[in-house]
C-alpha cells in the first residue's frame, strides 16, 4: 500500500466515511447524464417562492410571506402565486426546503459555500460542484466541453486544486459563442493549422514533465483547439430554434436556459446558467428595502424560463437524463426591514431539483409556520451536493486528492435517499 492509498483509507475510516462502491452495497446512484444548474445570485427568499407561509405585512411590521400561495400538481404542496407556470409541473420537481448553512453575513463567502459545498480554506482551494462532476464524468460527447458557464467567470465556479482541464468554458452573451473559441478575422483554416503544427513542435521539443500544472494547461489547450472553429459554435445559433419556442422561454435569461438545452444535446455534462445579470429590479435577489418591490418580476422570469426548460427537455426525451438544480446563497427571514425588504437567513432555505430521473415529491423537508426553523428532514449543503452527485452517477463517498491530501468529494454528505427509491 503506497502513501496515497494509506491516507485515503485512513481518512475514510477515521472520518466515518463509507468505503468505495466495490465494498459498499448501499451506494446510491442515479442514471442522469447532465446537470443544468440555475444560479440565483443574491439570495432567493424561500418564503416568497417555494416555501410560502401566511401573508405578512411590511407596513404593519407583521412577519410573513409577501405574496399569496397557490396549489400545485402535488396535493399539499404550495408555491408562490408568481410561480403559476411551475405549479402544474411540481410532480417533476422537488423543492428542498430545509437546506442550511451558517454563512449569512457575506455574499462572496456564501456563494463559495453554495458552489464548493465547503467553508473557505486558507490552505486549499476547493473545486466547484461543476468541476467535480466534470472531473469525474467528463463530457458526454467527445467533441464537447464537459463544463460550460453561461454567466460571469468567478473563482468559486472554478476547478480549485483539480486544475485547468476541469475548468469551465464561459460566455455572457447568447447572441454569439465564447469569444475564445472564435478565430480572429484573417486567421484562415490553413493559418490555424500552421499555428497548431508550430505548437506541437514546441511541445515535442520540450522535456517530459510531471508538473501537474503544466500538464493541466496542456490538456486545457488541447480541449480549446478541439472546440474552436465553426462546428461546435453552431450550438450557439439560437436563431435556428422555432420562434414560438424561443418566445416560451422569454427574455435573455430564458434564452440562456434554451441554450443550456442545446448544450445538453451537444454533449456537455454540466452547465451553469446565471439569472438576472442585468439586475432588473435594481438589487437582484438581494431584496433588501425597496429591492423587494419588483421581486415578483424576478420570480415570474424564473417561472417562465424554468417551466419552458422542463417542458422542452421532456418533449425531447431528455428530462430524465438531465438534472436541473436551482441554488442561491441563502434565504430570507420572514421579518421585514425598515424599507419593507428582507435580510439574510441561513437557518432554513430552499434549493430546487427537477428531472434527472428522480422520484420527485414536490417538496422535501418541513419548516415552521414562518419558514425560519427546520422541523423535519434537514439537508446540509454537503447532503444536497451528494444528492446531485448521486443523480449523475458520481461516487459521493470517494476522495479526491489535493497533492497527497485526501479530500472527500462532498464533505461527507448523504443523498436524500427517498428521491432515488
Explain this structure.
This protein is an alpha/beta fold and 421 residues long. The protein has 10 helices and 15 strands. The strands form 4 sheets. Strands 1, 4, 5, 6, 7, 8, 9, 10 and 13 form a 9-stranded mixed sheet that branches. Helix 8 runs parallel beside helix 9 (295-315). The model is unreliable at 1-23 (pLDDT under 50).
Strand content range: 15-25%
CATH architecture: 3-Layer(aba) Sandwich
The end-to-end span amounts to 37 Å
CATH secondary-structure class:
Alpha Beta
Quick check: average pLDDT?
88
Class of secondary structure makeup: alpha/beta
Query: What overall form do the CA principal axes indicate?
Result: globular
* CATH H level, superfamily name: Alkaline Phosphatase, subunit A
- The DSSP helix count reads 10
Number-wise, the strands total 15
Q: Helical amount among residues, as a percent range?
A: 25-40%
**Biggest β-sheet, characterized?**
9 strands, mixed
- The rounded Rg comes to 22 Å
Report low-confidence residues grouped into runs of 5 or more: 1-23
- State the domain count: 1
Question: What's the gist of this structure?
Answer:
The protein is built from ten helices and 15 strands.
Amino acid at each position: 500500500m503506497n502513501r496515497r492509498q494509506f491516507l485515503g483509507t485512513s481518512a475514510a475510516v477515521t472520518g466515518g466515511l463509507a468505503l468505495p462502491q466495490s465494498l459498499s452495497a448501499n451506494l446510491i446512484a442515479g442514471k442522469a447524464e447532465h446537470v443544468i444548474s440555475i444560479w440565483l445570485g443574491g439570495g432567493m427568499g424561500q418564503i416568497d417562492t417555494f416555501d410560502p407561509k401566511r401573508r405578512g405585512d411590511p407596513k404593519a411590521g407583521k412577519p410573513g410571506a409577501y405574496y399569496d400561495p397557490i396549489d400545485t400538481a402535488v396535493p399539499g404542496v404550495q408555491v408562490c402565486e408568481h410561480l403559476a407556470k411551475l405549479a402544474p409541473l411540481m410532480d417533476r420537481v422537488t423543492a428542498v426546503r430545509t437546506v442550511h448553512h451558517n454563512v449569512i453575513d457575506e455574499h462572496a463567502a456564501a456563494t463559495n459555500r453554495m458552489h464548493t459545498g465547503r467553508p473557505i480554506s486558507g490552505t486549499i482551494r476547493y473545486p466547484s460542484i461543476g468541476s467535480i462532476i466534470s472531473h469525474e464524468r467528463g463530457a458526454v460527447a467527445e467533441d464537447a466541453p464537459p463544463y460550460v458557464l453561461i454567466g460571469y467567470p468567478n473563482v468559486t465556479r472554478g476547478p480549485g486544486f483539480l486544475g485547468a482541464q476541469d475548468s469551465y468554458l464561459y460566455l455572457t452573451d447568447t447572441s454569439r459563442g465564447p469569444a475564445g473559441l472564435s478565430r480572429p478575422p484573417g486567421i484562415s483554416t490553413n493559418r490555424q493549422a500552421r499555428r497548431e503544427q508550430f505548437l506541437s513542435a514546441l511541445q515535442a521539443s520540450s522535456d517530459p514533465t510531471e508538473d501537474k500544472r503544466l500538464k493541466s494547461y496542456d490538456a486545457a489547450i488541447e480541449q480549446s483547439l478541439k472546440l474552436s472553429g465553426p462546428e461546435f459554435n453552431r450550438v450557439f445559433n439560437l436563431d435556428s430554434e422555432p420562434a414560438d419556442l424561443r418566445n416560451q422561454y422569454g427574455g435573455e435569461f430564458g434564452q440562456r436556459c434554451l441554450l443550456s438545452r442545446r448544450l445538453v444535446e451537444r454533449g456537455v455534462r454540466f452547465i451553469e446558467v446565471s439569472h438576472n445579470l442585468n439586475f432588473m429590479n435594481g438589487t437582484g435577489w438581494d431584496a433588501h428595502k425597496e429591492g423587494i418591490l419588483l421581486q415578483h418580476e424576478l420570480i415570474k422570469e424564473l417561472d417562465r424560463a424554468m417551466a419552458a426548460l422542463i417542458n422542452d427537455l421532456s418533449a425531447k426525451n431528455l428530462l430524465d437524463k438531465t438534472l436541473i438544480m436551482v441554488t442561491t446563497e441563502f434565504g430570507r427571514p420572514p421579518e421585514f426591514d425598515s424599507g419593507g425588504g428582507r435580510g439574510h437567513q441561513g437557518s432554513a432555505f430552499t434549493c430546487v431539483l427537477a428531472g434527472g430521473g428522480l422520484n420527485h415529491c414536490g417538496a422535501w423537508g418541513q419548516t415552521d409556520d414562518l419558514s425560519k426553523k427546520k422541523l423535519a428532514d434537514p439537508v446540509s449543503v454537503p447532503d444536497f451536493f451528494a444528492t446531485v452527485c448521486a443523480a449523475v452517477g458520481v461516487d459521493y463517498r470517494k476522495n479526491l486528492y489535493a497533492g497527497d491530501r485526501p479530500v472527500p468529494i462532498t464533505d461527507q454528505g448523504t443523498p436524500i435517499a427517498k428521491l432515488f427509491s
